[in-house]
Amino acid sequence: MTRNLPPGAPAEAAIDQLLAEPFGNWHVETSTSTLQLRVTKKGTAQVHRSTADRADTGPGDHDRAKRYLLDPDDPLFAAIGANAAKRRQVDAFLRALAATLPDPLPAGPLHVVDLGCGNAYLTFAAYRYLVARGAQPVVTGVDVREDQRRRNTALADQLGCAGQVRFVAGTIRQAPVEPAPDLVLALHACDTATDEALARAVNWQARWVLAAPCCHHDIAAQLRRQPAPQPYGPLVSAGILRERFADVLTDTLRATLLRAYGYRVDVVEFIDSQHTPRNLLLRARRGGVPDRREQHRAYRALVDQWAVTPRLQTLLPAPPDAAGAVVPDAAGAAVVSRP
After folding, report:
1. Cα 176–chain centre separation
2. Nearest to 243 by CA among 268, 276, 217
């Protein structure tokens, strides 16, 4: 709970009321100092004081200035036509990207692809952010519409980055992207388009993948066509419950399958739901997964129990285990993994 009170009696009364509460830890900030108080189990108060660092506030101002990775007033947003809501989504996505990439970034060109780029808000923003971090990004935006390719290419010329940001028209599965990217982005690719983006990332052996899924119609439709395993019938008995469960099941299967292919995966909320209800992010880094065979077993158990066939599964060969051998599918069929 946050509230502002004028100095004097109202503030003193509020403080007295709070002091009467049995809190064990206090953190108090003033314009000049910070006080931390910890009450031990024996009732002893341990106090630590330090000089405050308020470089991010102005004189007499107790509100911190909001920090953006890209200034909302950056001419980039005016050029690409992004509204305030889209700018917030892009900034939140860039923060997730910042938490994913190593520091410092690898030397040399950093190849990036934005699959299903649309109006290329994220494509251009990612380029600007990576340049600001000292990287040498070479970015490709992929969208199925030729008119979008022409529009975005003209914007790249206008923004002076046509040599480093290019666009191709084509499907996520088949659009030509050379060389294979280090980083794959996909912001709100609809339904199974997210699966296609993840599949291409795995086949490219991309080092980093950030995908914010959109709608989840595919698994929801499969759940409607058959009875749920017992005792989970009530879980999908109502349409809204089935829809929300399909969202959770779809992204759980995606994350588990990516782990079976050797990706460490975090499933996080990258922006508050008031800005977009599609605020979940799959954030994956290639390597360092010790239990890939176990991840595949967990994946097979889920799809077998719910009798579903995720789109991502159909786009990939059976995953190799940690030793490099191919893990057979549930039926024991012979499969050949990609080199």
Report:
1. 25
2. 217
User: Average pLDDT of 102-130?
Assistant: 93
Q: What is the CA angle 280-284-286, rounded to 5?
A: 175
Picking from 135, 295, 269, 296, the residue whose alpha carbon sits closest to that of residue 212 is 269
In this structure, the strands spanning 136-143 and 109-115 are: parallel
Of 201, 140, 137, nearest to 169 by C-alpha is 140
Q: Mark residue 47 as left, alpha or beta (left: phi above 0; alpha: psi -120 to 50; beta: remaining).
A: beta
What does the mean pLDDT of the chain come to? 86
The closest of 243, 256, 250 to 289, measured between CA atoms, is 256
Tell me how far CA of residue 151 lies from CA of 12, 89, 138, 215, 337, in angstroms: 60, 21, 19, 26, 39
Beta pairing partners, 50:
34
What does the pLDDT look like over 36-54, one tens digit per residue?
888 887 888 888 888 866 5
pTM above 0.90, yes or no: no
Compute CA distances 226 → 103, 220, 230, 266, 272, whole Å.
48, 11, 12, 30, 34
Q: DSSP characters for 71-118?
A: -TT-HHHHHHT--HHHHHHHHHHHHHHHHHS-SSPPSSEEEEEEET-T
Domains in the chain with CATH codes: 9-51 (no CATH), 75-314 (3.40.50.150)
Which pLDDT value is given to residue 331?
Answer: 38
Rounded mean pLDDT of 153-166? 94
Mean pLDDT to the nearest integer, 95-105:
90
Cis peptide bond upstream of 104, omega within 30: yes
Scan for tokens 């340049």, then name that residue. Answer: 131
List, in sequence order, every residue forming a beta bridge with 267; answer none if it has no partner: 282
Which of 330, 300, 314, 307 lies closest to 225 in space, CA to CA?
307
**Across 52-61, 175-184, 219-228, least confident range:** 52-61
Is the pLDDT at 171 greater than 90, yes or no? yes
Q: Output the six-digit token pair for 116.
A: 């299903």
